[in-house]
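Sample entry (358 residues):
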Amino acid sequence: MTHVDTAETGQGGADRSDTGAGTWRTGIRRAIRIGSRPGLWKRGRVLAALALLLGLLMLLHAKVTERAGLGSLVETFLPWFGLFIPVLLVAALWRRSAPAVVTLLLPAVVWLNLFGGLLSDKSHPNSDLTLVSHNVDADNPDPAGTARDLAASGADVLALEEITPQAKPLYEKGLAKAYPYHTVQGTVGLWSKLPLSDTRPVDIKQDVGPLGDSKPADVKLAYNRALRATVATDRGPLAVYVAHLGSVRLLPGKGFWTESRNRGAKALAEAVAAERNERMVLLGDLNGTIGDRAFDDITAQLRSAQEAAGDGFGFSWPAKFPVARIDQILVRGVEPASSWVLPATGSDHRPVAAGISW
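Predicted structure, serialized as tokens:
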């Protein structure tokens, strides 16, 4: 009886195995039948076309015309184009459209290739120097409070943009204790815990043409938007540039106006190329993302601390709901160890920070 029971138990196990295999094969056959239905491949052709256009736009974004600033506009918000992928996927599944689902692989792969590397945390725990850059906003209602927030950030080197004559004394007073060294050149300034030398304005071509040429030097300096200084570190001199490039605007009839910004970017790239110190950092509000073609000459020489050692996209503007990183920390000759965005202050931008090492 024992032998018979064992045999019967074994036979029952085989039956269960056969049943499992049969269920699996049945499922495969059912999936093949469903996928073979002609209707699935005829539905949602418009959705498939939209998915293809989305993928091609992201893949060939550098080929988009710069007429009316369209190319810069697309590249500024290119990461957000990825939101169309799940929207189209839901629509494709609702329509039961096999072509749309398959075609969506193109934009998904392209988006991951462009931005997938930003989704992981690449930061390292230790750094030799902490940098912070902040557009403090000319209309900031609480400059003194912003100064307190920035002093508490622990930055060794602090760059400010959009400093007004009225707010300048408040920043100088609020930062004096934490930063014994500072320079202000026009609307940009640099505060440091380490000695500064060779401070001077940098011409980024804000004033051009006959009217600009006729302005005296002291008048131009009051509206200067870039500077260069040397910070004395225990690892040697570090060249620091602070810049606030021209604003961009969406104008009726003109599209995405970037003329002033692009002119400044070209002048800044020339200044970087002429810099003799191999170790340098560029801090500032560039009014554009580094994916924007306007900054190709700059990014060919410097690399983004956020891309090299950040966590996520590091969006900094607008402060209430950031959708783009237009505030940058770019480096050469040093290693980015970490990069992050600080909490909002009274400004319409959020401060950005980075740790660098030698």
